[in-house]
Target: Glycosyltransferase
Amino acid sequence: MTILHIINNLSHGGAERILVDTAPSYSSLGHDITILQLNDKNSSSEYLATLERSGIKCLTLGQFGLYSPVKIIQLVNHLNKNDYDILHVHLFPALYWVAIASKFTRRQIQLVFTEHSTENKRFGKPYLRHLESWIYNSYTKVIVISEAIKSKLDRWANITDKIELIRNGVNVNQFIEAKSYPDSYWETQFSIPAGAMKLMMTARFGFPKDHITLIESLKFLPDYCYLILAGNGPNVEYVKHYVDANGLSNRIRFAGFRMDIPSLMKSVNLNILSSQYEGMSGVTLEALASGVPFLGSNVKGINDVVPDDRFLFEAGNSYALAQKIDTILFKDIEMQKSMITEGLKYVRKFDVSLMIDKHINLYKGLLKR
Model:
């Protein structure tokens, strides 16, 4: 199959990372994969390099803004000049532009869209409902990654017959087999002393992530608990200022965007994700696969991808989070061991190979129509 993935750009977001991580797997199965960015503003050089090394074609429509209607014309021209079996679209406004462009193309192409989030600024606005329904109904299939998204999208756009639930997956073996960094690495790279307890959150600095609750929890924990924040985003400077203003800069390290997340996750004592909501948290699954205890906010997108409530804390409650951290790391080592074992067992059902198989079967079914 020739499959074109269309996405706004390849910035450091969850949908973008999943696409970059999985595209080589589809290619290795004999499918011709191309990624088309609406523009390359904010695209990750690391992601682009990864795709190039894997032999994945990555094209860019041009430098017009993401919200420029010129994108419709550019898409029509591209689709009329190229022959694809499947168009798989990700994120807004690519969702809109491809739906409109498809009405003006000479070729009949199967359109697939993945809805990656339970929330967006369009849901719930009555004046957009008819337009949204028309847009979503322009696609042959709409993939949702969780039951929560399925329920909300069906109520909003009335597309029951088009919805297909395919949960995101992670490369479980990549995290299980990752090499752990020794204490000397943390001392050299992050000035974290040997024997310190290392907590880590891997997330973009921006809504809906909630770094502040996690940072506040450090105030209730021993001084030898250090926090590593991996990622970047629009709120990073605000968070850095907050850390300084609260006198915590000596215990918090900003690691920036990293390509060695499997090794980092495996090397810390506890992985944490504090968030107001998630679509379906890949970071949660990665943390479970790392063989290290995990705690996440008790919100949709996290609480439906963990084994049980031991892995959750009350969203926005820094003291409750600190108490859970204290229990797992210091007071109940048997519970810690049990969480690691249960996490590794549980995450197997989210292996990326299962997701890829379901996508391919969906594509094949569409081409038989």
In short: Residues 352-367 form the longest helix (16 residues). The CA atoms of residues 226 and 250 lie 9 Å apart. The domain at 2-169+351-367 is CATH 3.40.50.2000 (Rossmann fold).
